[in-house]
Amino acid sequence: MKRMLLFLLGIFLAAGWLVPPAGQAAAGPPAKGESFPAITLPIPKDADDKNYLGLTGGGSFKITQVKAQAVLIEIYSMYCPYCQKEAPGINELFQAIEKDPELKGRIKILGIGAGNSAYEVGVYKKTYNVPFTLIPDERFALHKALGETRTPYFILVRIDQGGTGLVTYSELAGFKGVESFLEIIRKEVIR
Amino acid sequence: MNRLKGLLGFLLVAALVSLGSAGPVFSRSEAFKENIFPVGQLKPTDSKLKVKVGKKAPDFTLPSVGGEKVSLHQFLGKKNVVLSFVPAAWTPVCSDQWPGYNITQGLFEEHDAILLGITVDNIPTLYSWTNQMGRLWFPVLSDFFPHGAVAARFGVLRTDGTSERALFVIDKKGILRYIDVHDINQRPPLEALMGELGKLEK
C-alpha cells in the first residue's frame, strides 16, 4: 500500500498537481487590481526601442523599469488574424498618445509576440509599420507567465512611485477603438 | 479498504489524464474563439516519406476552396511552389499557421513563389475554417476524396487519416528542393522556409 501511495505521489508531482514546476503557466492572465508579475523581458537591441522604453545596455528588464507612468502590453502573434486586423488601430493609438502632450512620454506601448521568433516579429513590424517596441517570445515563456491568454490580449500596467506595477486593465480582444482606449489610459495616467 | 483503493484508482486515472492533457500550445487567436478542437500532444510524425529532394515532385490536381481546380504542372517554368500540408481544419497550430503566411505574400513573391495550402478536409469545412483567417491570397486545396490521395503520394498521410504538418519546396523545373515534415505539434518557423526559398533561382 505504501508503495502504491509513493507511486501516486510521483504521478501527482509529474502532473503538476502538487508543485508547479518552474516556468509553468500562470493560472490566468494578471487581473485588474493585481500586482503585475515580476517577469523579465529581454532588452531590445534596437537603439530606437531602447530609447523609447528608457532602457540601456543588454540583458533583461522588468516592466516597472520602463520609463513611463504606465505601460500598455499587447500580447499578439503575427499568426493571429485579429491582431493583424487591429494592427493599424494600435498604430493610431500610438500616434494619438505621442501627439497628446499630457500622455507623451508617460505611457508606452509594448507588444509581446507570443510564439514568434525575432524574424517573425520583424516581419510583423515591417508589414504593419509598427512604431512601438515588439519583443519576440519564441518559446512562449512570457506568454505562459502571463496566463497563456488568447490573442490579442491587452494589459495596462500602472507603475507607481515605489516601482510597483499595478494592473489596471486586462482584457481579451480589449481594443475597442482609439478613442475608447485613450479614455481608459487617461483615467489611469492623468489623475 | 476497498473504498480507499477505489479512491486511489480514481486519483490515478485523473492524474494520468491530466498528464496526457499537457498538449501542444494551442491556437491562440481570438479569431477562432472556442472553436479549436483540443487534440492534445500527438506523435510528432506518423508516416513514411515517399519523395526525395532532387527528384521530380509527383503531379496532382485538386479542387480548391475558390472553385477552380489547381494542378502542380500549371506552375512549371513559371513559379516556384511551396506546398503546405496541415493536418486538419479546426485543430491547434494549423489554425495559426496559414494566417501568418497570409501576411507574407510579399516574401513569397520576392522569391517568385506561389503557396498552395492542402488539407484532407472537404471543401465546405475548409471554406468555413479559412473564412476565420480573413481573405487568403493563396489557393487552399482539398485532398478529401479519394481521401488523402495526394498526401499519400508524397508520403505524408498519417495512420489516422490526417496529414503531417509538412512543407515542400518545388522549383520551376518541378524538382523537390526542400522537405520539412515537421513535428505536428509545432509550427515551422517562417525564417527556415524563407531561407530555403532564398536558395532558389527567381
Keywords:
heterodimer; A: 191 residues; alpha/beta; Glutaredoxin; 5-stranded mixed β-sheet; two-stranded antiparallel ribbon; 7 strands; 21% strand; B: 202 residues; two-stranded antiparallel sheet; 27% helix; globular
Order of helices and strands of chain A: HEHEEHEHEHEEH
Percent of residues of chain B in helical segments? 25-40%
CATH architecture of chain B: 3-Layer(aba) Sandwich
Provide the residue-averaged pLDDT of chain A.
87
- Alpha-beta content class of chain B: alpha/beta
Q: β content of chain A, as a range? A: 15-25%
What is the CATH C-level name of chain B?
Alpha Beta
At CATH level 3, the topology of chain A is Glutaredoxin
Structural category of chain A is alpha/beta
CA gyration radius of chain A, whole angstroms:
18 Å
Mean pLDDT of chain B: 87
Set down the secondary structure blueprint.
The complex is a heterodimer of chains A (191) and B (202).
Chain A: H1 2-14, E1 40-42, H2 47-53, E2 60-62, E3 70-76, H3 81-99, E4 107-114, H4 118-128, E5 133-137, H5 141-145, E6 153-159, E7 165-172, H6 178-189
Parallel strand pairs in A: 3-4, 4-5
Antiparallel strand pairs in A: 1-2, 3-6, 6-7
Helix pairs in contact in A: 3-6
Chain B: H1 2-20, E1 61-63, E2 69-71, E3 80-85, H2 98-102, H3 105-110, E4 113-119, H4 123-131, E5 140-142, H5 149-154, E6 165-170, E7 176-182, H6 190-198
Parallel strand pairs in B: 3-4, 4-5
Antiparallel strand pairs in B: 1-2, 3-6, 6-7
